[in-house]
Model the fold of this input.
Amino acid sequence: MTATDTTTAITVRKVTARIGAEVTGIDLNRELDPATVTALRAAVNEHKALVFRDVDLDDAGQQRFAAHFGPLTTAHPTVPSQPGAPNVLPVDSEDGRANQWHTDVTFVLNPPQLSTLRSIVIPPYGGETLIANSATAYRDLPAPLRAFADTLQAVHTNDYDYAVPPESLDQEARERRSVFTSVTYETVHPVVRVHPLTGERGLYIGGFAQRIVGLSSGESRDVLRLLQSYVTRPENVLRWRWAPNQLVLFDNRITQHYAVDNYDDQPRRLNRVTVAGDIPVGIDGTASRSVKGDASHYTPVA
Done:
């Protein structure tokens, strides 16, 4: 795929069959012309995740690039931003490791539509980011299971037990968790979300999805585990090995991601900037609804 106008010619090359493409021929430090933004939007719609090597961006440049796709969110509903950069969230191994499958901030009513990650400090080994295509996962479901998923809604919240019980945490980790849950958010989303631009259906679950509406906690765990197993099938996953000065842009509406904790005690730091999203809608047209927590300080509705 190539998009050309008077100023920019870009090339988009697939990385795997189902997800991911590398983009070349573009300087992300420059203001992008409308044709280039349109081409990038089409590419992320198709490939779900775009990778840019050898980018020369600082925090301001990352924010400027992300803003081509819509208004930015602040860094996070509860977690502090990078000092002096209210739209930038440091994803730093020293502040904990998010080694679980999730879609960014699904516990609010309108989670981000797009996320950008930029490599700052990269360990000498490990530290990959996995990104999964939840649209191909949905298409992989057997027809009876797909029809069942179409009817479901899930409760997403930031107040849950994570992968580590509280009693196993040290004081610093307990304080970080206290900040993350300082305001409790709870939102009901469709389990199958319709992408507003492509019309694709994708499984909209991940780590913040804690319960299926109308089912017990045990039944919910079983159903979510079954559906999640289709998302994380290897053929649906891009495994990106970071190098210095890289940026990844992915569609937060139809992917999940996972930061692999396989780099011992080496430092790892990425900076995240996200673009405000719309309110999810299921296949019957029912929109998500907020149950608890006001996130208007964090994100406008796109």
Q: What stands out?
A: The longest helix spans residues 217-231. The chain has one domain: 2-292. The CA atoms of residues 141 and 300 lie 34 Å apart.
